[in-house]
Amino acid sequence: MKSPVAALFANTPESLGWEDGGGLPAPLEREIRAIYRRSPLYTRRFPLHAEPLQWSCYREIPVLTKQEIVRHGHSAFFSDYAEIERGFVQKKYEYEHTSGTTSGPMTVVMEDGWWNAQTRRAYLAHPRLAQYVDRPYRKCVLAPVGCSSNLCPYEDHPFPHRYFDGTVYLNLSSDPFAFPEAEWDRIVLELQAVKPQVIEGEPVYLSLLARALQRRRVQMASIETVILTYGKASRQHSRRIAEAFPGAMQVDLYGSTEAGYLFVGDAFADNLRAVEGNAFLELTPWREGAEEVFQINVTTRDREAMPLLRYHTGDIVRRTPTGFRILGREKDLLFRPDGAVVSAFEIDAALSDDFACWHWSLVQGSDQRWEFQYVADGVAPEAMAGPLAGVLGSDVRVALFRRKFIQPAASGKFALLKPLAR
After folding, report:
1. Is the pLDDT of residue 212 over 70?
2. Are residues 150 and 260 in the same domain?
3. How many Å apart are CA 352 and CA 221, to the nearest integer?
4. Beta bridge partners of 163
5. CATH value at residue 375
6. Enclosing domain of residue 362
7. Tens digit of each residue's pLDDT (9 = 90 or more) over 268-284
């Protein structure tokens, strides 16, 4: 996992190519040199010497943030952006917009075929998904409405025109958290027509789809695999999805538009592993007292357009005996005074066994007051407020509020925990 003089990585030692001595592993140094050749932005930020790189030099390379990419603009990654614009016309490059955690949209330029290639590598890294590589299969996708249109085409096109290489994109321009029943009728009908083997989606949206299927008394026996991506899942979402698609295996696939897929594993099994062929995943300790909890800095592999070097994703992971667990966005986690990190995992454990909901969100109103907002067919037991408060800290009060729906952020994604900004 690590060298005595090195940074810590989620990649296996075999993937990194560890060697004796104080220098960087050869695959990592080659990638860094290639990134410097391709993107002049990095040389302007921190010039590199020609001698072999040492870990001390690596650690001096400034971490790249989303805010910095937005501030410089995507064109700063290229020596001659006119060549990239010609590439757009010739279909050699494409661009996507992602909001993520930034206040403004971030434009991501990618070479043609990169998204499909890194997705293929992510599938090959998981035994369940590997069976779908390089063979025809049927798949449906229910993505956040803020997902960029080329990757997730959700425009108001008729059904046949949202069918690409065996994949149907179910989204239209409506907001899924407030779909009218006629829209769910359409989505359920398309699912029945396609009979997909795989369904991929944002966990909250898939949970709401499960509710739509239940209300219509529709079962989808064709679905073998559910891919949870785009957002952080709760066990509540997982259970509702399992009820709608009994017997289907749930796989957790984590990544981003700008960095690609980085971790894959069985959902809620704490066995996420790095997608070795897509990136080097540097782990930096998050906070003092939070053992085995890390921030992620990503260095992409074999990217030509907008390669990322020590890119700070804003996500937090916990290392477990069997792999990793994604805790979520740093801004969506609670760090208690005693050093404990509270994520959706701890909240799930505090919910009553007899409680079931389609979605929930914990919103902090003040230092000692939180609201547990939930979407459910029944009312949550008041006794559940005590265990929730106990997880959040001492002298904390939690009020339970049943909601008709919970609105996502402008990006179309949901935050399960919403602590006050510090």
Report:
1. yes
2. yes
3. 30
4. 168
5. 3.30.300
6. 333-418
7. 999 999 999 999 999 99
